[in-house]
Amino acid sequence: MDNATGYRRSTGSPRGAARRRELLTTITDDVAENGLVDFSLRRAARAAGTTHKVLLYHFESAEDLLRQVVLGLRERRIGNALAAVASEPATLTDRVRAAWVSLRDEESELRRVLDQAMGLAMYDPGRYAALGRGASQQYLPTLMSFCPPEWPERRRFEVASMILATLRGFLVDLLTSDDGSGAEAGFEALLRAVAREEALDTM
Description:
By secondary structure, this protein is mainly alpha-helical.
């Protein structure tokens, strides 16, 4: 039994794990379409065609379920970016450009939900800190993989962190501005900074 909820957990069972994945996929699709604003176990249960008690059998709490949903949506974003980068030349500048196009053009629902997740983490960190805390850990390895492999790990981490923080700001600008011209102008400046970083290796 789970001490917090009084419900059993579906741990260790292949059948339970498969059911958990099925539920998570269905609920993630619902959140991607309808957002996070009124998310609850009961809404998730309706979307999955089950009951909130069944969800508590497979997930620790509403917060745990929401965290898993957001993790899955970030994986979708990362997968889209990696697919966009796959055909690009092996320069960091070109990879960042391709990743930005993927982020800029991704479905508005996905961007909206992931922005809502960060907003919840800032608005109520006591309850939703995990929604924000895991974002960098998910995104940074991908951005570090865009960097030349011969760079020291610290340098790849620093450059990837700069790119991540800057792209986050541009995504917010796209969400809140009328035409996105500021984000596009800023992105060109970011590309110049990345190109200068790459040029250090040829001096």
